[in-house]
Specification:
This protein is an alpha+beta fold and 194 residues long. The protein contains 3 helices and 10 strands; from the N terminus they run H-E-E-E-E-H-E-E-E-H-E-E-E. The strands form 3 sheets. The protein has a 5-stranded mixed beta sheet with strand order 7-6-10-8-9, covered by helices on one side. A 3-stranded antiparallel beta sheet has the order 2-1-5, covered by helices on one side.
Length: 194
Amino acid sequence: MPQRSTHSVGFTLLLMLIALVASSASSRFMASAQQQLATPTAATYLLGPNDRVRVKVYGEPEITGEYEVDINGQISVPLAGHIGAEGLTTRQLERAIAAALAKGIVRDPRVSVEVALYRPYYILGEVKKSGEYPYRLGLTVMDAVASAGGFTYRANESKIYVRRAGASAEEAISLDSPVPVFPGDNIRIPERYF
């Protein structure tokens, strides 16, 4: 009889250890996922089509201005030509523009680039005013829903579907914690089932 209870205690301890390891791994996974979904900053944001950038070339007022990243991921800068911007940070784009200008008539170009306007996000489904909305840093799904007039009475307020810019499929996300929105996202609020 005592041998059986020893096995039982050992088995119980083993189950508790497995649960502890799984909980720790789950916490690390969630922290890693949240870090990957962290809201972009001006330094880490990757440009894409429909973003608008403000380019300043010191001493060259005819080149200085705002340029939109076209559907091919490029901007067209006078004296520099078409420059690939998609997938670059603003610092990388600064270097690309400076390199292109240095090949032409501009000597030692000093270039500054900043995002003037982020590409919009889209929200549809069970919100009062679905459509296209301007993006701002730090935006969450609940902020987006508020911008769209709030949920309709039929909305499922516990989960949403998001298709991130460049993704081919949407993913279901629970609304039990803040969900960041990124430029170009498509957010769908589903209908609840009774």
